[in-house]
Structure formats: C-alpha cells, structure tokens
Amino acid sequence: MSKTIARVYSAELEGIHARPIEVEVDLNVGLHSFNIVGLADKALNEAKERVNSALKNAGVKPPTRENRKITVNLAPADVKKTGSQYDLAIAVAYLLVTKQISEFETKDKIFLGELSLDGRLRPVNGVLSIAQMAKNSGFKKIYLPVENANEAAVVEGVEIFGVKDLAEIMSELEGRIRMEPAVFSQAMGESRGAPDFSEIKGQEHAKRALIIAAAGGHNLIMVGPPGVGKSLLAQALIGILPAPDREEAIEVTKIYSAAGLNPGGLINERPFRAPHQTASLISVVGGGNVPRPGEISLAHRGVLFLDELPEFPKNILESLRQPLESGLVHIARAKGTLILPAKFSLITAMNPCPCGYYNDPEKECKCSAYEVVRYQKKISGPLMDRIDLQLKVLRVEYDELRKKPEEQKTSPGIKDKVEKARSKQRERFNKKGLKISTNSEMSSRQAEELIELELEAQKFMDNLAKAKLSPRGYYRLLKTAQTIADLEEKEKVSAGHLAEAFSYRLREE
Which of 134, 252, 331, 497 is least surrounded, with the fewest CB atoms within 10 Å of its CB? Predict the structure, then answer.
C-alpha cells in the first residue's frame, strides 16, 4: 500500500521564543478539497492559494489538479499557528506525498518561508529565535528565504540554506544541485549620528549625571524649562554607551526580528527608543492578538526615552514599574503568560509645570499652585522611587553658549571612560558567578555583598537615616555610589561618592 502521509517540520514564534511544528499532509479519496487544520489563523488559511499558484508556476502539478481530498495538519493542534512562514513546509510536504520529489530524511530539517504566486520565497520574522530552537532541539538544517539567511547564520551548529524560490529547493532536495550553507557576515548598519557631548554647551551637572547613567545602566529624569537641551542630552547619551557584547546583540536581534524590524544580520548598536505620548499601552508594553514586543522590549539593553513624561497616560507610566524592577515584562493571556526581556535605562524629561516656567528666573510662570502640583503629581511616588538620578536642568547662560567645544570632553573620550567602568563591574560580577553586567541590575542582597564602604562612608549612611529613604531608594543610592566609584577607578565607595549619589535623589518642589 502506498504511503499517503508526508511529514516535515516548521516553527511557530511565541513572543521571542520558538517551538517546532509538525506539518503533515494527507491524501485521501474523494472530491477535490484542500483543508488546513490545527488552529490556523486567517493568514495561514490563505496559504492554500499561495501554495497552489507557486507549485503551478514552479512547473509541478498543483493541488487544484488533484481530484483528491488534501488535509494539512499542524501539530500540536492546541497551539495557535499564525503567519505565513508555513507556506514552504506545506509545499514540500505536498510534493513528498504526491511523489513529485524523491523521499528524503525530514526529521532533521526545518522549512520556513512565505511563497509568492510565482514561487519566490519572501522573508519571515523571528528566524534567529527559530535557529536557536532548531539547534537546541537537534535539527541540523534550516531552509529559509535568502534575505533571512545571514540573520539565522549567527547561530552556530546548524546549517542555514538561503533559498530563492521553490524550484531551487526542489533541485536541492532531489540532489540535482548542491547548495552551500550560509556563512554569517555582519552587515554594518548606518550610524544614528548621535550629538557629540562637546556640542552641548554648559549643562555640566546634567552631563555628569548622564555619564553615571551610561556607566551603571541607571534611570534618570531631567526637569527643566523648554529649550534648555533636555532632549539633546538624552540623544547624546547613545553616543557614550559601549557597544553590546555578542550575547547582548543576539538578545536585541531576537526581539527586533520577532517584531519584524531587523533588516538582516546582527544588531551591534544599543537601541534608543523614543515613543510619542500618544502611543497606546500595547505598543509600549507589548501584546496584541498576535503578541509582539513593545517599545520597552525594543529598548532592551539600550535606552527608553520618554519626553514630556507627564503627558503620557497614567496606565502607561504605571506599567513601567514592574519592568524597571525585574527587567522583564509579563503579558498575560487566557492560555498563559508571555515573558519578554525589558532591561533598559529609562531616560525621561519633563517641564516643571504645564507652561514650563515654574521657578524660572527669566520667564514668569502662568500656572496656579494647584496646576503645578497636579502636573507634578502625574508622576507617582513609586515610579519616581525607581529613578536613580533626578536632576534639574537649568537655563544656559549666554557666555556659555559662546564658548568653543572642549576637545577633551567629546563623546569618544567619555565612551572610553564608561567602557572602563563597565569592564570593572563585569569583573566584579564574574568573580561571584553573576550573570549581570551593570550595577543597576544588582539585587539588594547582591548590593549588600558586593559594595564595600569606607569607614567614613558608613558613618555618612548612618546620617542619611534622617532622609527617610525607602528600602528601594537606599539600595539604589548604594548602587549609584558604586558606579561613581567605578568611574573614578576606586575599589571602595567613599563618603564623597555617596554624597554625589544622594545629591541626585533630592528634588526641589
């Protein structure tokens, strides 16, 4: 009795993680029908038409010319299948079951790609996550669109074959041609052209806070009137952040690939995300009918910049509290919770009042006392407590604006100093076997174990009890002081380091 079932493998993306999916095609007697079962969404159900046309234009007999019942099953059946990446797997399984190509070993291969009507393969999302899953699950080969090959080739230990069209993969599977596995080649992206620190006149206090934020991965808020350079300072921050290491680059690339934002290759720059105040909760946090990473995950290992902070809806601001603490965002759904990484530095800017000139020495504020308090209260205490560096950005004097840039204070020079501080932190964490990279990621227990205070610093901390810091504020103060010590290449935290760190916790009302 001839075999009437063929089985190949594809993959489903869940957040930024992937799982293997069996694609089974069965032929049965009866009038022509072509059905896809296994919780397929609309885009996947439309694969029938794409596969039909692609097979016809590749020069083989398509399903529409089969006077038989064709059933495609996607297993496991209780997992929702989304997207168009199953087209290639369905076409290959159909060719196998109709014996239009020779049989081959399918257990070690994954097929991905959307088919165009003429048989060409279009790129799909999340191939880096799928390649990692394939390696961990014992698959040896992945066939996918050419545009996705370089990204998937980042993962070693699994062969990646970039395919142009259906005819090419048929020739490869039948042994008529021999395709060479893709070799990873980093495509250098265009530089974002961040402002240089030397271009920012004055604001030495704010620049110092930004350097501390960059060195330790700390959160920062700048409060000041319009036009003093808050947004420019935030944009300059990206120019002094060290490049991500390979592990961090893979994490970032997986997120961008899952969101359909990766042009190919490995992302070797730290993200800088600046959503507008009108952004929705789902676009910032993540989720949707087909859960996708939001802005806070897209800022992973980089910077999330929120300009005009009080103008963001309250539900968005409060949704930041848990990711700021844990470095993860939990998206709850009926069938389970999706967990996405969200370790970012929160950099924010705001005016002190609705008109922007409260306590400004040159322009009179037109807001009532009630309006000022109401505006400032939009930022809740718990959220503010999670921001390590809180500073006022004042108007720059005219004489400062006329000064020429100082060469020794350029972004590349500052970046070297930040990299040295981060290297010092990594060495400290590696000695303890901790998988963290910046001081801001330390837990309270780790801060107690790793941060050494000089005798005078211990006395200073005792005096700080009068400041009535919350336990969270206390440990964030310690971690900020440790970053200042690392920038100065000191082994222990001094009273001066603590005093500077504490100065960033003070807010004038």
Answer: 331
3-state helix, strand, coil in the chain (%, to 5): 40, 20, 40
pTM, two decimals, is 0.91
Specify the pLDDT at position 408.
52
How many other CB atoms are there within 10 angstroms of residue 196's CB atom?
Answer: 16
Domain boundary among 410, 442, 466: 410
Do both 106 and 217 map to the same domain?
Answer: no
Residue 367 DSSP code? -
Which among 173, 188, 220 is the end of a domain? 173
Beta bridge partners of 17: 14
Pair 354, 266 in one domain:
yes
- Give the distance from CA 440 to its chain's centroid: 18
Q: To which residue do tokens 């957040």 refer?
A: 15
Q: At what angle do helices 127-137 and 246-258 cross, to 10 degrees?
A: 120
Size of the chain in residues: 509
Residue of 301, 220, 290, 236 whose CA lies nearest to 267 = 301
Q: Please tell me whether residue 495 adopts helix, strand or coil conformation.
A: helix
Considering the domain architecture, whether residues 391 and 428 belong to the same structural domain is answered as no
33-62 burial code (b ≥16 CB/10 A, e <16): ebebebebeebbeebbebbbbbbbbbebeb
Domain that holds residue 52: 5-173
Comparing CA positions, the residue from 60, 422, 444 lying closest to residue 244 is 422
Is residue 276 over pLDDT 50? yes
**How many angstroms separate the CA atoms of 208 and 146, rounded?**
46
